[in-house]
Amino acid sequence: MTVVAPTLTLERRLLRDFDLIIALDEVGRGALAGPVAVGAAVMDAAGSRRRVPEGLRDSKLITERRRPQMAERARGWVPASGVGWSSAAEVDEVGIMRALGLAASRAVQAVVEQGVSLERTLVILDGNHDYISRVHPEVLTVRTVVKGDRDCASVSAASVIAKVARDTLMMTLHADHPVYQWERNKGYASLEHRQAIREQGLSPFHRASWAIADAPTLF
């Protein structure tokens, strides 16, 4: 199957009406353990005229071995980038959608702290649900884009930046909780992960409010 490379076609069109775009994409929504993360990648008119880095794709379409290098290239390609987080405890407390909104808000704040202005700025959010507007204290203009991580290069950049950051965190957490094999499953519902939960119980990084033991196996 031929994989079509993402482009900046939509971004160029939208930048006729806005000075900046902040592209957002999430990772970790369906995991049993660990935080959800939202990556942010900023695009301006000058950046939209630069060539998209070779091999940039939605993070799910890049091999694990190649993702760190691609994330580094993506960070160097955009004017600013960042990652926002919402912990497993927050997922338990407020639910997954509000937790995503919190993480997205923190991702936006991360690029604001790098000097990005929210005036005349559009937020592109991968998917079909705006989970950021309800929780962000600023007034944002948000546009959801279905398959944005596949089609829009700025969203692809946000996707791989977030994926590498979250995978790195899960491998760090694995050192203190090796029984769950997070270095392999990154907190998702592998057979080994679920079996370890049944035998050892939950760690502080599990989403305790979820029906974890009965979660479907993803790989």
Q: How many domain regions? A: 1
How much helical structure, as a percent, in the residues? 25-40%
Count of β-strands: 5
* CATH top level assignment: Alpha Beta
For this structure, what is the CATH homologous superfamily? Ribonuclease H-like superfamily/Ribonuclease H
Compute the separation of the termini in Å.
21 Å
Stretches with pLDDT under 50, minimum 5 residues? 215-219
Give the radius of gyration: 17 Å
CATH architecture: 2-Layer Sandwich
Mean pLDDT: 92
Secondary-structure-based class equals: alpha/beta
- Individual helix count: 8
Topology overview:
Elements: H1 9-14, E1 20-27, E2 36-44, H2 67-77, E3 81-86, H3 88-94, H4 96-112, E4 121-126, E5 141-145, H5 148-151, H6 153-174, H7 182-185, H8 191-200
Parallel strand pairs: 1-4, 4-5
Antiparallel strand pairs: 1-2, 2-3
Walkthrough of the structure:
By secondary structure, the chain is α/β, with parallel strands linked by helices. It has one domain: Ribonuclease H-like superfamily/Ribonuclease H (Nucleotidyltransferase, domain 5), CATH 3.30.420.10. Helix content is 37%, strand content 16%. Strands 3-2-1-4-5 form a five-stranded mixed β-sheet. A hairpin with an 8-residue loop joins strand 1 and strand 2. Endonuclease that specifically degrades the RNA of RNA-DNA hybrids.
Characteristics of this structure?
Ribonuclease, Nucleotidyltransferase, domain 5, 219 residues, EC 3.1.26.4, RNase_HII/HIII_dom, alpha/beta
